[in-house]
From TrEMBL, chain A:
The keyword Transmembrane applies. Belongs to the binding-protein-dependent transport system permease family. HisMQ subfamily. It comes from the Bacteria. This is Polar amino acid transport system permease protein. It is a multi-pass membrane protein. Pfam families: BPD_transp_1.
TrEMBL record, chain B:
NCBIfam families: HEQRo_perm_3TM. The keyword Transport applies. Gene3D superfamilies: MetI-like. It is a multi-pass membrane protein. It is found in: Cell inner membrane; Cell membrane. GO terms for biological process: amino acid transport. Residues 19-202 form the ABC transmembrane type-1 domain. SUPFAM superfamilies: MetI-like. It comes from the Bacteria. The keyword RNA-binding does not apply. Keywords: Amino-acid transport, Cell membrane, Membrane, Transmembrane, Transmembrane helix, Transport. This is Polar amino acid transport system permease protein. The chain crosses the membrane at residues 20-43, 55-76, 88-111, 132-150, 189-210. It comes from Ancylobacter tetraedralis.
C-alpha cells in the first residue's frame, strides 16, 4: 500500500528543507564562479606559477570524488585547528569543487573572445582587472551559459551529498523522516520529485536568459 | 597533528579489497550502463514516440535527481516492490541506471552525427534498420562520441564513492571504517583522495591515448 498520507504530512517539512538545498547549492555556485574565474584567468595567464596552480587545482578537485572531499573537510579541518560549522565547511567544499568545473567551462569561453577586443581595451587604458570583469567574464558567460546552467543543476544534485557530513538539507531531512516513519519509498520519491522540480526551474530559467542574450545579440 | 602511515600498511589487506571492489563496481556499472544507454538510444531511434516517451521520462528523471536519492529509492524502497537487494546489487544497479541515462543521451547525439544520406542509401539497398545501426551508424559514431563516453565513464568512477552511504564495502567505506576505529582521519582520507586522483588521472590519460589512436584511424580513412 502506497502511503500518500505520509507524503502529504511531510511535504511542508521537505519543502522547507529544500530551501536549504537551494541556498547551499546556489551559494556554492556563486563562490565557485569567483574561484573558477580566477583559476581560469590564472590558467590562461603568462605566469608559470599561475598556470601550475590552476592546473593542480582543476586536476585535484575534478579528480577526487566530491564525497571524499567533503569527508576530508569534515574530519580534517578540525585537526588543523579550523573549527568551522559543518555547513560552512560543506558549502566551501562544494564551492571549491564546482569552481574547478566552472574554470574548465569558462576556459572555452575565454578562448572564444577575439584577441583584438582585449588589445583594444588595453589601448583604451583599461586595467587588467577591468578587462577581466568588464569584458572577458561577461563575454565568456554568454558563450558558455548552457554549460554553466548545467553545472548549477549538477550542484543542486551534488548538494545531496552534504547530508553525509550531517548538514541538514533536503536529503538529510528525508533520511530522518524515512527512518522514523519506516516509509522510505514514499519519502525518497517525494524528495526526488522536489529535486527534479528545482532543476527543471533552473534549466528553464537558463533557457529564458539564453533566449534574451540571443535576442540582444541579434539586435 | 601526528601523521602515522603505519595505519595504512597495517590495514593493507582491507584497503586492497576495497580498491578491487571499487574497480569491479565501476566496471560492472559502466558496462551495464553502456548496454542500457545503447538500448534506450536505439529504441528511441527506431520506434514511435509512444514507446520513446517513457524512455524520455526515464532519462530526464535520472538526470534531474541526485544519485544518492536514486540509490536510497532502489535500496530502501526496493522491498516495497519485493526487491530485497543486497547493498552491492542495489549499488551496481543504481550506477548502471544512472550512467545509462547519460550514456543514452551521448548515443542519441551520436546517431544524429552520421549523415542522413548514408542511411537513406543503405535503406535503398534493402539493408534492415537494425543492420544499418550496427554496420553504418555505430562504427562511425563511436569515433565521434568516444571523448564523451570516456568522460562519462570517468564521472561514474567517482560516483562509486557514493555507494559507501548504502554500506557497500568499497574503498571509501573501508577507509571510513578504518578512520573511525583508529581516529587517524588525516592519513586515511588523504590516502583515499590520492588513490582516486591517481586512478582518475590514469584512466583519463588512457582515454586520451585511445582517442588519439582512433582519431588517427579516422584521418587515414578520410584521405
Amino acid at each position: 500500500m502506497f502511503n500518500t498520507e505520509i507524503i502529504v504530512k511531510s511535504l511542508p517539512m521537505l519543502l522547507q528543507a529544500s530551501v536549504w538545498t537551494v541556498v547551499y547549492s546556489l551559494t556554492s555556485v556563486a563562490i565557485g564562479f569567483c574561484i573558477g574565474t580566477l583559476m581560469c584567468a590564472a590558467g590562461l595567464s603568462s605566469s608559470r606559477l599561475g598556470r601550475g596552480v590552476a592546473a593542480f587545482y582543476v586536476s585535484f578537485f575534478r579528480g577526487v570524488p566530491l564525497l571524499v572531499q567533503l569527508l576530508i573537510s569534515y574530519y580534517c579541518l578540525p585537526l588543523i585547528g579550523l573549527n568551522v560549522p559543518s555547513s560552512v565547511a560543506a558549502v566551501g567544499t562544494l564551492a571549491l569543487c564546482t569552481g574547478a568545473y566552472i574554470a574548465e567551462i569558462l576556459r572555452g569561453g575565454f578562448l572564444g573572445i577575439p584577441p583584438g577586443l582585449i588589445e583594444a581595451a588595453r589601448m583604451v587604458g583599461l586595467s587588467r582587472a577591468q578587462i577581466l570583469t568588464r569584458i572577458e567574464v561577461p563575454m565568456a558567460v554568454r558563450f558558455t551559459l548552457p554549460a554553466l546552467v548545467n553545472e548549477t543543476t549538477m550542484m543542486v544534485k551534488a548538494s545531496s551529498l552534504i547530508s553525509v557530513v550531517g548538514v541538514l538539507e533536503l536529503t538529510r531531512l528525508a533520511q530522518n523522516i524515512a527512518t522514523s516513519t519506516f516509509q522510505p519509498l514514499e519519502i525518497y520519491l517525494t524528495a526526488g520529485a522536489i529535486y527534479f522540480v528545482i532543476n527543471a526551474v533552473i534549466s528553464s530559467a537558463g533557457t529564458l536568459v539564453e533566449g534574451r542574450f540571443k535576442a540582444e545579440t541579434a539586435r | 597533528m601526528s601523521f602515522n602511515l603505519a595505519i595504512l600498511t597495517d590495514n593493507w589487506r582491507e584497503l586492497l579489497d576495497g580498491m578491487v571492489l571499487t574497480v569491479l563496481i565501476w566496471v560492472a556499472g559502466t558496462v551495464l550502463g553502456l548496454a542500457i544507454g545503447l538500448m534506450v538510444a536505439v529504441v528511441q531511434l527506431l520506434t514511435n514516440r509512444w514507446i520513446a516517451a517513457p524512455l524520455n521520462v526515464y532519462v530526464a528523471v535520472m538526470r534531474g535527481t541526485p544519485f544518492l536519492i536514486q540509490l536510497f529509492i532502489i535500496y530502501y524502497g526496493g522491498p516495497f516492490f519485493g526487491l530485497d537487494l543486497t547493498p552491492m546489487v542495489a549499488g551496481v544497479a543504481g550506477l548502471a541506471l544512472y550512467g545509462g541515462a547519460y550514456f543514452s543521451e551521448i548515443f542519441r547525439a551520436g546517431f544524429v552525427s552520421v549523415p542522413p544520406g548514408q542511411i537513406e542509401a543503405a535503406r535503398m539497398m534493402g539493408i534492415s534498420r537494425l543492420a544499418i545501426v550496427r554496420h553504418v551508424q555505430l562504427p562511425q559514431m563511436l569515433v565521434i562520441i568516444l571523448p564523451a563516453l570516456a568522460n562519462m565513464t570517468v564521472l561514474l568512477s567517482k560516483e562509486t564513492a557514493v555507494l559507501s552511504v548504502i554500506t557497500v564495502n568499497e574503498l571509501t567505506s573501508v577507509v571510513q571504517s578504518i578512520g573511525s576505529t583508529t581516529f587517524a582521519f588525516a592519513e586515511t582520507l588523504l590516502f583515499l583522495a590520492l588513490v582516486y586522483w591517481a586512478f582518475l588521472e590514469i584512466v583519463t590519460a588512457a582515454a586520451r591515448r585511445l582517442e588519439k589512436r582512433v582519431g588517427r584511424f579516422m584521418l587515414r580513412t578520410q584521405n
